[in-house]
Amino acid sequence: MKEKSKLVLIDGHALVHRAFHALPPTMSAKGVTTNAVYGFTSVLIKMIKDLNPDYVAAAFDLAGPTFRHKEFAEYKIHRQKAADELHAQVPIVKEVLKSFGVPVYEKQGYEADDLIGALAEKAQNSTGIQTVIMTGDLDTLQLVENDEVVVWTLKRGVTDAVIYDEKAVLKRYGLRPNQLVDYRGLKGDPSDNIPGVPGIGEKTAMALIQSFGNLENLYKTILNFKFPISKKDKEKIKAPLSEKLIQKLLENKDMAFFSKKLSIIAKDVPIDFSLDQARWRERGNVKELEEILKKYGFFSLVRRLPDIGLGETLPKEESFNLNYSNESITYLRNEKEALEIVKSVGDRVAVAMDEGDLILAVDEKTAYILPADVYLSLAPVFESEKVAKIFHGAKPIVKKLLTDGIRVNNIEFDSEVGGFLLDSESRNISFEKIYFDEIKSSAPTDSKSWPMRYFEIRKRLLARIKNLGMEGVLRDIEMPLIPVLAKMEMRGIRVDNRAISKLSSSLKKEIIKLEKKIYDMAGCEFNINSPSQLSRILFEKLGLKGKIRKTGKGALSTAASELDKLTDEHAVIPLILQYRELQKLKTTYIEPFPGFIGPDGRLHTTYNQTGAATGRLSSQDPNLQNVPIRTELGQEFRKAFTAEKGRKLVSFDYSQLELRIAAHMSGDKIMTAVFERGEDIHTRTAAEIFDVLPDKVTAAMRRKAKVLNFGILYGMGVLGFQRAAKVSREEAKGFIERYMAEFSGIAEYVEKIKSEARENGYVKTIFGRRRNILEINSKMPQLLSQAERIAVNSPIQGSAADLIKLAMIQIQELLEVTYKDSVHMLLQIHDELLFEMDPEVVNEASGNIKKIMENVYEFDVPIVADVKIGNNWAEMK
After folding, report:
1. Is 584 found in the same domain as 548?
2. Among candidate residues 827, 33, 873, the one with its CA nearest the CA of residue 485
3. Region of residue 5 (left: phi > 0; alpha: psi -120 to 50; beta: else)
4. Could you tell me if 27 and 131 lie in one domain?
5. Are residues 134 and 216 in the same domain?
6. Which of 121-125, 491-495, 512-516, 870-874 has the lowest mean pLDDT?
7. Which helix (H) or strand (E) segment is 388 a member of?
């Protein structure tokens, strides 16, 4: 049977909104917010690749009231006004659609859903057409009809899609598509402010429509009952009906039918449409499309165009300045050939690995491929200090060569790290992305030729890094750190599997106990891990009240930050938060943990230099940066990290490093004096803001002062401090005002950094690392507030990250000269370094390491590293 032609109808506004809220804010080179445009276009390309449609059309809402507003003035009245940054992107999206050859339909007084309903109806008049509605929500499911009309919608974010035909709708709702308007007539729709019948939720509405088919049949049945209902009639009432429910339905009959009417998508919109108008491949302009995408920096999307048959006019590599013709890539099969290369190498080589083979480029036109048993002959090249090495993603290669007994010296440049330095907010620092950004051409499909391109990419990125004053960060911090991290990953840390098994067992028992307590308090069993079920239990069944934000679907949020607001409202809230913490420990760490332990009984995490915009290291497989330490179970987990038999674990933890850096950067006189005298900063802060002598400071006072000290650096406002310190709004406001008055240097620093960020668009660490602050001039209060928090904290947190990296580099040099086999650096977790040492060198080595950590950079305040020794990570003193 001949396959049907496909018509895709795009719900433009729904997808733009979905993309805007799913993706973090991004800006073009000219400062235009582009996250919605990028997300929309990415989804469009995905859809075309998945469905290969013959016809495509799009519908958008227009500003102004619709016919529904005229019938019901409160329709969608609760909807927040869309952000200016979102509105500004809609014309760009339409520009993209035009270049794709997709016509856009709009009509005053109607919503995009109505236009889609009308277009789908017109399309059904043509034989052999399947209509696919592409949307970001589920409002158009009522239009689904057999296999003739289906809905293609996003399941999560802007990457996962799902298709709803009649079977899929039935599976999800237990209803046919044409019954969904009856369902909404009863349940209503909070997101559109469609009232429905008060007190009827999803389950009841679904059960009623399943039983009676539609509203008409339901009311035909219940209108036969007269109130008060006689004993005889009561016997006729069958589930899901009840006497109470019948009364509720009868009292709200008009509202039920009115809500159904508001929910029905209009299919009779007067609109001119023919399939010829939607022949997008014939009407599109690929060149124009590419220019638009490049204009906004969407080079990754340009590279995806050939996947949907739009790659014919992609720029060819030779049409640009670089000429890589007459390239030579030679496969070397024996040691003799490799040794000839060693003699001819110049002062710089580019290195990559591909499926176990090593690729060595000696210049922009000459590269060699060497299998594992041959590249060992290149050891003199890698170990030479005179030959600079350049990479894209150096650490895995350096680590592999170390396992082969080859030490890599003079790591000059890594374009992955260099690209990250230039744009630490980017989530894509692949070589293809960097190459396209710099050369304005796609990288060759054969990655074996890439190392020959490393030379030019190095030159271009390095020029930009120097221009931004970050050459020192690259040369003195990031490049020397690569072999240090490689050695740490190779060494790993010993893990006691029996301790993990014991913890897993006790954790499961604790979770079961908590579940029972939560069920008892809630009065029923439910899925605690389901946000929607938890929301219903807390806000409908238990009736908790509070200023709780809503999710995108209109439900009250159960995010931890929102539940924190309700801690004093009901005893179940602390239990739920505790349950979540234990579940996270169980699923994130305990359960997957045994899979991370190597045959040597040691855990080898992977460090990432490009994982955090502040410059901090992150780790994965597993992520050790977020191992809980303050809870009893967190400490039990740390007990599983042990020293090798006959050795000791030694921890070096910077004391209040970020506060000391804040004192240095701000020049605050009181904070500087406190650190110079070796006093406790939190006690002194409490004394200042509570106006008492230090010896009169209570534990509760000190705790509030600690929250304030760190909170100010993280941009915490009155509301944040109120929640964290559990004080009234007036008290919180007073504390912050007194803090800013007492620590005036900190207050001035905060305002100065915000001002510099607004003027420059970036902030810097002490060492020169830059972080772009994308939304610092945003008109959206939420985005602006977040940008200001980042601006204040990034220089401090980034300086702390740079400092510990410098310490790690110097410490590794010490270990290789003085303690080659007796001391090993194992882990870096925020401001802490963990070592494994032979007992006889612990005192001497600890003194030397502590000295390096405290003196690696000269600050205006003393830097202190606390030292602890033990047999496992939890029990150290």
Report:
1. yes
2. 827
3. beta
4. yes
5. no
6. 121-125
7. strand 388-391
Domain count, the chain: 4
How remote is the C-alpha of 795 from its chain's centroid?
A: 21
The DSSP secondary structure of 77-93, one letter per residue, reads TTSPPPPHHHHTTHHHH
pLDDT at 223: 82
CA angle 536, 539, 543 (to 5 degrees): 125
Residue carrying structure tokens 């590249």? 375
Max CA pair span of the chain: 105
pTM for the model stands at: 0.67
Buried b (16+ CB within 10 A) or exposed e, 729-763: eeebbebbeebbebbebbbebbeebbebbeeeebb
Confidence band of 157 (pLDDT split at 50, 70, 90): low
Position 321, amino acid: N
Contact indicator for 770, 470 with CB cutoff of 8 Å? yes
Neighbours of 103 (CB within 10 A): 17
Query: Are 500 and 591 in the same domain?
Result: yes
DSSP assignment, residue 477?
I
CB distance 609 to 481 below 8 Å: yes
150 and 197 together in one domain: no
Last residue of a domain, one of 611, 640, 669: 640
**Residues 117 and 250 both lie in one domain:** no
Cβ(451)–Cβ(359) below 8 Å: yes
Looking at per-residue confidence, does 648 or 372 come out higher?
648
**What pLDDT score was predicted for residue 315?**
39
**Residue 308 burial class via C-beta count within 10 angstroms: exposed 0-12, middle 13-18, buried 19 and up:** middle
Query: 200-209 as b/e, with b when 16 or more CB fall inside 10 Å?
Result: beeebbbbbb
Burial class (CB in 10 A: 0-12, 13-18, 19+), 21: middle
Residue type, 504: S
800 belongs to a structural domain: no
Q: In this predicted structure, what is the pLDDT of residue 159?
A: 66
User: Which residue, chain included where needed, has tokens 């429905």?
Assistant: 196
One domain, residues 256 and 111: no
Q: Which of the 8 DSSP states describes residue 588?
A: I
CA-wise closest residue to 271 among 95, 108, 100: 108
pLDDT of residue 314: 39
316-325 pLDDT tens trace: 333 233 344 5
The Cα 500–Cα 626 span in angstroms is 17
CA angle 454, 455, 461 (to 5 degrees): 80
Residue at 723 is within a domain = no
Give the CA radius of gyration of the chain: 32
Q: Which residue has the tokens 């036109």?
A: 365
Neighbours of 334 (CB within 10 A): 12
pLDDT for 326 equals 64
pLDDT by residue (tens digit) across 401-439? 999 999 999 999 999 999 999 999 887 888 998 998 898
pLDDT band at 383 (very low <50, low <70, confident <90, very high): very high
Cis peptide before 240 (omega within 30 of 0): yes
Phi, psi of 769 (to 5 degrees): -70, 130
Domain that holds residue 244: 182-263
Number of residues assigned to the chain: 877
CATH number at residue 351: 3.30.420.10
CA 157 to chain centre: 11
- pLDDT tens string 37-64: 999 999 999 999 989 999 999 999 988 8
The CATH number of residue 66's host domain is: 3.40.50.1010
Question: Is residue 465 situated within a structural domain?
Answer: yes
Give the residue among 24, 281, 18 at the shortest CA–CA distance from 135: 18
Considering the domain architecture, whether residues 80 and 144 belong to the same structural domain is answered as yes
Q: Is residue 389 part of a domain?
A: yes
Q: Provide mean pLDDT across the span 139-147.
A: 89
Question: Which tens digits make up the pLDDT trace of 753-793?
Answer: 999 999 999 999 999 999 999 889 888 888 888 899 999 99
Among 263, 289, 304, residue at a domain's last position: 263
